[in-house]
Amino acid sequence: xxxxxxxxxxxxxxxxxxxxxxxxxxxxxxxxxxxxxxxxxxxxxxxxxxxxxxxxxxxxxxxxxxxxxxxxxxxxxxxxxxxxxxxxxxxxxxxxxxxxxxxxxxxxxxxxxxxxxxxxxxxxxxxxxxxxxxxxxxxxxxxxxxxxxxxxxxxxxxxxxxxxxxxxxxxxxxxxxxxxxxxxxxxxxxxxxxxxxxxxxxxxxxxxxxxxxxxxxxxxxxxxxxxxxxxxxxxxxxxxxxxxxxxxxxxxxxxxxxxxxxxxxxxxxxxxxxxxxxxxxxxxxxxxxxxxxxxxxxxxxxxxxxxxxxxxxxxxxxxxxxxxxxxxxxxxxxxxxxxxxxxxxxxxxxxxxxxxxxxxxxxxxxxxxxxxxxxxxxxxxxxxxxxxxxxxxxxxxxxxxxxxxxxxxxxxxxxxxxxxxxxxxxxxxxxxxxxxxxxxxxxxxxxxxxxxxxxxxxxxxxxxxxxxxxxxxxxxxxxxxxxxxxxxxxxxxxxxx
Length: 497
Fold this sequence. Notes:
Layout: H1 2-71, H2 75-98, H3 104-119, H4 134-142, H5 147-205, E1 212-213, H6 216-222, E2 229-230, H7 240-300, H8 310-334, E3 342-345, H9 346-363, E4 367-371, E5 378-381, H10 383-400, E6 406-413, E7 419-425, H11 432-435, H12 453-463, E8 467-472, E9 478-483, H13 488-495
Parallel strand pairs: 4-6
Antiparallel strand pairs: 1-2, 3-5, 6-7, 7-9, 8-9
Helix pairs in contact: 1-2, 1-5, 1-7, 3-5, 5-7, 7-8, 9-10, 10-12
């Protein structure tokens, strides 16, 4: 009887276990290789992005100090220019070391331009005959040779950012694939176990037998009380407990390895996101700090100090506000509280947002036109969150519209009587390069900004049960539409006020 059971039931079970073990082992090896390749790619992309950012920062600093040296050829200024030239040379070397093969031509162009600038320096480290003052000096400063190198530097940084985005997409695809493989293995194991158990139970029950098997060790992994299985058998399986212990140990080992691989994949995704976030935040914080640092150094230098005037203080305040906005965007992106909804008239919220953005529109000589209906447009929303979304949309529209253009804000009703707010502009429209990832983090074409504003805005819209979309208008410009769910109770409450 014992040999019969072992040959008829244990053989197929062992074969099935071997197949599952082989499948698990193969999946583990494949996932480990994918994770290793992805981690290596992320490290390289992060290093390339950092090298491109460093090169751009030092070129900007060289141009600033060179202009300051042309205006004030003191030994301290000369030392600053020489130090910046050393830093730019080191940054170029780092960029070449980390350079992607596709970027060699662009990096060589930057190197040639910088060598031409170096070759044009005079005996006193002043490029050419720089005017000392007046309008000629301003025109000379605007046409400084290093200024032309910033455009390919920005292109180099944009390329690295695109590669980082592709790495994140590959990480997500690999995580999806790994999840499907694990689900498939789990389903195969469950189905094989059910079929094998059914066959074993049917064969054994035909022979009157009794066998007590303890399954407390497996119970900890299954998360439920399996109880006790009793089968009568004329023979005694003395080594059954030992075999079950080995099976339990194997299950623990395989499950532990799969969990380790899942954690490694998650860590790779987190590293990719952290790398992209760190690069964006470093760029957005370092540039304002550099400007503030230069102004403070000019005021504190021991020889020929330049006191801070009203314009300098205004510039410092502007850069501080910019950094504060960057930090606030990050906070909003990381932690958006649930909306505290109350009935509000969207016309009033649009008016408040337009008042907040009025000063920015006046500086660009733009017209902000409000198309508001005569009847109330009630909606159950969180006032502060929706006001922040409307203000962000207005800021974006104003920034994208050239001087003399127009920004229009309208309030209406969409399908299903859903209240809707549209913000349109007469700018260049949405850049096709970011159209597909317009609402993803860090997607922006602005020279400043974190690219988190639209991401947070869409999250707020979804938390309210609504939508936020952005498209290009046929006649030029862009149109963003914020649609909120219809709220009959909100309309009744607003009408009774």
